[in-house]
Write a structure and sequence with these properties.
Elements: H1 2-30, H2 37-44, H3 58-77, H4 88-103, H5 107-117, H6 138-147, H7 154-172, H8 181-195
Length: about 200
């Protein structure tokens, strides 16, 4: 009996992972609207009713997909943050440049993280299910709080982090010739200096 239960759990985990693996390229290439439960059920070979045994809702699936993309994004940021300057503005620039380098590979994940950071300021959306993922931006929020004139104001720092991530995502979205890294660096540096009142 235990073996049958284990097999069912393994099968369920396998099908769930299959759904996720099929959904990721759809999300990346066609956007959220194209990720439908009926399309995925057909791809996996399930009935539309059966797919809800693996994900209770489309929203839950989207939250997982975005969480995985955000985690992949931040995994590329962390190695750049091992040695930070002690001066707050310089530390913030290091953070901003690390996020810029990472966001070039997945600007959409940077935007979604910004959405999640600002969820409490906006309408109820899938980002509410991503609140746990915002912890990956805690180091950025912390250094913004330290470098900002409103020291210790975490709400302001969270808002600034979201704005910075949106700007980074915009300027790193690759045009046909590829991103202009000098322009990106100048844009990020100008933002940081304006927020920290540096000349």
């Amino acid at each position: 009996m235990q073996r049958r239960v284990d097999f069912r759990e393994q099968y369920r985990a396998h099908v769930r992972q299959q759904i996720v693996e099929l959904a990721h390229p759809i999300l990346a290439d066609e956007g959220e609207d194209a990720v439908t439960m009926s399309k995925l059920a057909k791809l996996v070979g399930l009935s539309i009713g059966s797919i809800y045994r693996y994900f209770p809702s489309r929203r839950a699936l989207l939250a997982l997909l975005w969480r995985e993309r955000i985690e992949a994004l931040t995994a590329t940021v962390e190695p750049h943050l091992e040695e930070l300057p002690s001066e707050a503005t310089e530390a913030l620039l290091v953070h901003a440049r690390a996020w810029t380098a990472a966001a070039g590979a997945d600007p959409g994940a940077a935007v979604k993280l910004a959405d999640a950071l600002q969820t409490h300021l906006g309408p109820d959306t899938v980002e509410e299910a991503l609140i746990e993922s915002t912890s990956v931006a805690d180091p950025l929020v912390g250094v913004l709080a330290d470098a900002s004139p409103a020291a210790g104001d975490l709400d302001r720092a969270r808002w600034l982090a979201a704005v910075l991530l949106r700007v980074i995502a915009t300027v790193t979205s690759p045009p046909p010739a590829g991103p202009d890294t000098n322009f990106v660096d100048r844009t990020v540096e100008a933002l940081v200096k304006s927020w920290t009142h540096q000349d």
